[in-house]
Design goal:
- The chain is α+β, with helices and mostly antiparallel strands and about 270 residues long.
- The chain has four domains: about 60 residues, no CATH class; about 30 residues, no CATH class; about 35 residues; about 110 residues, Orthogonal Bundle (Cytochrome Bc1 Complex, Chain D, domain 2).
- The protein contains nine helices and ten strands.
- Strands 2-1-3-4 form a four-stranded antiparallel sheet, with no helix packed on it. It has a two-stranded antiparallel sheet with strand order 5-6. It has a two-stranded antiparallel ribbon with strand order 7-10.
- Helix 7 crosses helix 9 and helix 8 crosses helix 9.
- About 5% of the residues have low confidence.
- It binds heme C.
- Heme C binds next to helix 5, helix 6, helix 7, strand 7 and strand 10.
- The site of heme C has 27 residues, from helix 5, helix 6, helix 7, strand 7 and strand 10.
């Protein structure tokens, strides 16, 4: 049994007499209460049957007296002038009663805790403001209007411009000038600038082809949009055309569009 042939000697600090002699593996009791507070060294020497020695040292610290807290000075700090240092002592190992309040060192709240606190509060404020929706009875007051108009339904002009860009500009062009002989201009167009919007609405809903506009006959066809655009959307894009590129015709409502839609293409 090779285990029995190895012996362990345990030494404390500079001691020459072994603190314990052991047959590994074996536990022993280190009585820290009999040691002075501070740094110590445990030296473990293992000797095998042939007399070879292995050594391992374990530095450790004994604290039987009260614990000490220091605020204002840390290990290896570089300091100058007068510095304010706060010390506290609490709970020795042999005190009868442990009083937690005494372990609370009245040090100031560290800077990082304030930073975290401010960041969390700022984020909460941002989040709250971002999700805040004004109650309907206040939605149209000067305080809230700028936010309210960012919802699509509340900004027909912008909505109409967007619809024009995606549905109409490929033919009639972004500047409303159309393409000669292919797609008629809408800027200054008699149908678009007419006070009576009926033809404008009808052509957008039901399409058109083969008309002669300002002396030009167009070969291409104006598609019907009745199935693509709701009354609100049609009104928005029609009003965009009636009020852009120098056009200044009276605008229409979704109700106007609904009437033309109900009447059909005539
Ligand atoms: C595929 C190309 C094309 C697209 C897309 C298109 N149009 Fe047209 N549009 C035409 C053509 C071609 C005409 C002329 C038809 C004709 O001969 O009467 C026309 C005519 C019109 C007219 C009548 C002009 C007049 O003087 O008679 C209006 C108003 C009009 N378009 C509005 C729109 C709107 C609004 C959209 C988008 C929702 C749109 N168009 C999308 C090709 C297009």
């Amino acid at each position: 049994m090779s285990d029995n042939e190895t012996r362990i000697e345990v030494y404390l600090d500079d001691g020459t007499e072994p603190y314990a002699i052991l047959n590994p593996p074996e536990r022993f009791e280190l009585d820290a209460a009999r040691l002075e507070d501070g740094q110590h060294l445990l030296r473990i020497v293992a000797i095998d049957s042939s007399g070879r020695r292995g050594v391992r040292t374990v530095p450790f610290e004994v604290r039987n007296g009260p614990g000490i807290a220091v605020d204002g000075l840390r290990d290896h700090d570089v300091v100058e002038g007068k510095i304010n240092v706060l010390v506290n002592a609490y709970g020795g190992a042999y005190e009868e009663k442990w009083e937690p309040a005494r372990a609370e060192t009245p040090a100031p709240v560290p800077t990082w805790a304030w930073v975290v606190f401010i960041v969390v509060v700022a984020w909460a404020l941002y989040y709250g403001i971002d999700l805040w929706r004004p109650p309907p009875q206040f939605a149209d007051t000067p305080t809230y209007r700028s936010r309210a108009v960012t919802t699509p339904a509340a900004r027909p002009a912008a909505h109409g411009a967007e619809l024009y860009r995606t549905s109409c500009a490929s033919c009639h062009q972004a500047n409303g000038q159309g393409v000669p002989r292919l797609f008629p201009p809408l800027a200054g167009n008699p149908v678009v600038t007419a006070r009576d919007p009926a033809d404008h609405i009808r052509i957008v809903l039901f399409g058109a082809k083969g008309n002669t506009i300002n002396g030009v006959t167009y070969q291409a066809q104006m598609p019907a949009w009745a199935d693509q655009l709701s009354d609100e959307e049609a009104a928005a894009v029609i009003n965009h055309e009636r009020t852009s590129w120098g056009n200044n015709a009276p605008v229409v409502t979704a109700t106007d569009v609904a009437k033309v839609r109900a009447r059909g293409n005539r």
